[in-house]
Design brief:
four-stranded antiparallel beta sheet, 4 helices, 170 residues, alpha+beta, three-stranded antiparallel beta sheet, Aminopeptidase
């Protein structure tokens, strides 16, 4: 088995650009409610499982996603921001404002494959960071696997600073 390398991105929220990326009018971004729980789980699971770079760590990432959606979301520990196309959730991110956590965006940004490269990930990342800033955080963090497209193209946006981690993240 190949050992994965993990990276942590951090953003200085004081320096976060105020202007949010534009979201196409056919999509709706909103805070997810508990009524959306099954749709969230389906979208996050599908997004992760369709990303080949997660294959070596898919079981542990799916377990984390399940714990967050089934436990942390209903308890209020995390908030989900979802993008819908009609009644379907096509992209989502979870935010956790606890400052002592390794990751304030514990699932990263999840976008269904067929909706990628449309600015949805950039919009969700900025929206998540903006909401964390609104909640009083000065810095936000996210841990992901090295080499994912999001590691290379999405998370460096808005001033994201990348640090390679040693070992498996907690």
């Amino acid at each position: 088995m190949r050992l994965s390398t993990w990276v942590q991105f951090s953003w200085n929220l004081k320096a976060l650009p105020a202007a949010s990326p534009k979201l196409d009018a056919r999509y709706l971004a909103e805070s997810a409610s508990l009524d959306d729980q099954a749709l969230l789980k389906a979208a996050v699971t599908r997004s992760l499982s369709m990303e080949p770079a997660w294959s070596d760590d898919l079981a542990s990432r799916m377990k984390l996603a399940e714990e967050i959606i089934d436990s942390a979301f209903p308890s209020g520990e995390v908030t989900f921001i979802a993008i819908k196309h009609g009644a379907r959730i096509i992209a989502a991110t979870a935010i956790r404002d606890a400052g002592d956590k390794v990751s304030n965006l514990p699932l990263g940004v999840c976008v269904l494959n067929e909706y990628r490269c449309r600015g949805l990930g950039s919009f969700l990342l900025h929206e998540g960071l903006r909401r964390l800033k609104e909640r009083g955080l000065e810095e936000a963090r996210l841990v992901t696997k090295k080499g994912l497209p999001a590691d290379r193209y999405l998370y460096p946006k808005f001033g994201g600073v990348r640090t390679v981690l040693s070992g498996v993240p907690a």
